[in-house]
Amino acid sequence: MVIFENVSKVYPDGTIAVKDLNLKVKKGELIVLIGSSGCGKTTTLKMVNRLEECTSGKIYVDGEDISTVDPVELRRGIGYVIQDIGLMPHMTVGENIAIVPQLLNWNKKKIAMRTGELLEMAGLPAGKYKHRLPKQMSGGQKQRIGVLRALAAEPDVVLMDEPFGALDPISRDNLQNELMDLQKKLKKTIIFVTHDIDEALKLADRIVIMRHGNVEQIGTPDEIKNQPINKFVKTFIGENRLSEITTDTSIEVLVEEPFVKVTPDVTASYVLEKLLDIGRESAQVVDEDENWLGMVLMTDIKKVSSEINIKELLRLKRRLYIEEATLEDAADILSEDDLPIPVINHDNKFMGVVTDNGMARLTISSLKRKQVG
After folding, report:
1. How confident is the model at residue 84 (pLDDT cuts 50, 70, 90)?
2. Interhelix angle for 169-186 vs 356-372, to 10°?
3. Which of 301, 304, 337, 303 is nearest to 319 (CA)?
4. Cα(356)–Cα(341) distance, rounded to whole angstroms?
5. Where are the domains of the chain?
6. Fold of the CATH domain 2-236
7. Is the pTM of this model over 0.70?
8. 3-class DSSP state of 313
9. Are 68 and 286 in contact (CB under 8 A)?
10. What is the pLDDT of residues 178-237, one digit of tens each?
11. In angstroms, what CA-CA distances link 128 with 124, 133, 137, 145?
């Protein structure tokens, strides 16, 4: 269904995000791309719907070379779910789900039937939820609506970029179960990105472990767990990895993509709108080369003129260095303030953030592993 042939992505500054990727995703398969921040998993996903263009190689969807397809038309035929959901706040739940079918000129009756069908399938009765606004829904419900919107136009292929990463551990577990139930019924071809190994092992038909733009191993969850191909995979997956984590463990196991990341040329009003849309309190600011410039807080933005450049509000003190910081360092900072912690390397490259939700997920996973052991 989705085929990558010698696909590479190289950015103008020479950074190799993906190198010579060869991968065949079967029809009806749920395949998970996993690796630490910067490994190339999200870039790989975005090349499928041409939000990122590959530098070389070919990608085929249902036998068609996507480089020959108009990008807008391509995206309308592929479902796409992201972590920050992106629901239109002024539109009802039903209107949000109907966006792509309307663009495809479905008639009103067909759209209404499809919307109702999906809501019922997800345990959200249309009569109760269809006319609600996103702000009237919980975080888990909004993420569920994001999944339904991606399925609305009946795409064969669905791309999911850490769709449950912003949720608390209980909501995350519930939505994982719902996705598994939906997949049994619908048999979509799903490419799913995560940094959470337990999520990958739970959901995937096959797992693709990536590192520095390369594929380290492709296999079923059992193959990955029982037949790791090299030391890196063994360490990454290790059966007792989470139960052996201590306060001195590197924060690398917790680094994830931020909810909001912007460049320094934007205005305060632009960032405020993005934060309000997904209910977050902070944004990370990086330049075009992914150098970290600082973070900005909603509380600071609200105090200034809407047209002030965001770089005038940067905060620089809250950060950790990936080469040396430990889980204990992160826990100390999060105990004082639960805002995400920016993580950079000694070259000032932005690696991602550590969040209180991530710390909670790690703790729960560790406890579960100990109980099983």
Report:
1. low
2. 70
3. 337
4. 9
5. 2-236, 252-361
6. Rossmann fold (3.40.50)
7. no
8. helix
9. no
10. 888 888 888 999 999 998 888 899 999 999 999 889 999 999 999 998 888 888 888 777
11. 7, 12, 11, 14
